[in-house]
Write a structure and sequence with these properties.
Layout (H helix, E strand, L loop, with lengths): L4 E5 L5 H7 L5 H16 L6 E8 L2 E11 L8 E9 L8 H15 L5 E2 L7 H9 L21
Parallel strand pairs: 4-5
Antiparallel strand pairs: 1-2, 2-3, 3-4
Organism: Geobacter pickeringii
Keywords: Transferase
InterPro entries: Acyl_CoA_acyltransferase, GNAT_dom
């Protein structure tokens, strides 16, 4: 029998599980980073902010965070997903897909007309996941430049 995936809003008590699952933030910075995210997204009270978690058999197995943003560079309101993680043991069970589907519903209900994210080019796992969810290159192009000068001899 396939285990049921339960998606719910994050609660302050989920903080330690999120920190333990996060593999993108340097260890020394995790606590401060996630404290700030929880303060804004878990305690937000605004229907455009969403922090969802996934559980299987009452065990924390993943999270996804996003919000509705609008008007940057003339963009209509759209949903942005900026954090997603599923425990390695529970990947390929549909956890990420279920969380993504649920956050898309939340963001659409909050006025988003599209969904966006940014993924590091070398992160093939995450790129593959989002492409499988139907995301592709959008009409905007990300541009960046370092603000740190190269060290001189």
């Amino acid at each position: 029998m396939k285990e049921q995936i339960f998606i719910r809003n994050a609660m302050p008590s989920d903080l330690e599980a999120v920190i333990a699952l996060d593999d993108t933030t340097p260890v020394a910075e995790k606590q401060a980073y996630w404290n700030g995210i929880f303060e804004h997204y878990v305690n937000c009270g605004h229907n455009g902010c969403h922090f969802l978690v996934a559980e299987i058999s009452d065990k924390f197995v993943g999270f996804i965070v996003g919000e509705v943003r609008a008007w940057e560079f003339g963009s209509t309101p759209c949903g942005w997903v900026f954090a997603l993680s599923v425990s390695s043991r529970h990947r390929k069970m549909g956890v990420g897909q279920r969380m993504f589907e649920e956050i898309c519903k939340c963001l659409k209900a909050a006025g988003a007309a599209a969904i966006r994210t940014m993924v590091e080019r070398d992160n093939k796992l995450t790129l593959s996941f989002f492409r499988n969810q139907g995301l592709s290159s959008g009409r905007y192009v990300e541009l960046e430049s370092s603000l740190v000068s190269a060290a001189k001899d």
